[in-house]
Amino acid sequence: MIKVLVTDDEPLIRAGIRMILTSADDIDVVAEAANGREAIELARAQRVDVVLLDIRMPVMDGLTALAELRRTAPDARVLILTTFGEQQNVLRALAEGSAGFLLKDSAPAELMRAVRAAAAGDAYLSPGATRHVVDSLASGQSARRAEQARRRLETLSGREREVLALLGEGLSNADAGQRIHMSEATVKTYVSRILAKLGCENRVQAALLARDAGLGT
């Protein structure tokens, strides 16, 4: 069982997330916290696998709690719960070691996918939020940065560049596959190959490269 800690200062949101996650046979919500301080204490006491962590909370905010969790409960994977308009917070969370981020209005199936991916040691980056983060960063790119990105993309095949362009739009593997008439599994294989060729750790880094290079725009 994947042991999950849900952290949000709104009881209704916590209840909704608990209801969704406990409907899965392999996920168990073992604790709830209303702020970052409670999350730190419960993560250590319950030895959870995944912490869902809101950014804006009283007593201790999510970003402060994230830094402390990485120090005191390093085995717990932290997924940040966010809303549109919090791009800079998302970037800081990724830099400080979160396992990814998820929009609060995500579909139940996406919530479960994110928890399973984090528990497996993978990063999960909500496709909808990814596009907004990429757009906010790409707006200030320089000509030199664009040229560097284009040179890095020279190692990709035509089909790989096509898939990368869709990552730059923030599409999921399933949506990208529908766009270019390819199975989700095949798109996943292409994404893994692209990340390896470009030396990127996750989809967001690859999407940024795509946008810097002007791919798909």
UniProtKB/TrEMBL annotation:
Gene3D superfamilies: 3.40.50.2300. The keyword DNA-binding applies. CDD domains: LuxR_C_like (cd06170), REC_NarL-like (cd17535). InterPro entries: CheY-like_superfamily (IPR011006), NreC/VraR/RcsB-like_REC (IPR058245), Sig_transdc_resp-reg_C-effctor (IPR016032), Sig_transdc_resp-reg_receiver (IPR001789), Tscrpt_reg_LuxR_C (IPR000792), WalR-like (IPR039420). Residues 3-119 form the Response regulatory domain. It comes from the Bacteria. One of its GO terms (molecular function) is DNA binding. Keywords: DNA-binding, Phosphoprotein, Transcription, Transcription regulation. The modification 4-aspartylphosphate is found at residue 54. PROSITE patterns: HTH_LUXR_2, RESPONSE_REGULATORY. Residues 149-214 form the HTH luxR-type domain. GO terms for biological process: phosphorelay signal transduction system; regulation of DNA-templated transcription. It holds the Pfam family GerE. The keyword Oxidoreductase does not apply. This is Response regulator transcription factor. It comes from Streptomyces sioyaensis.
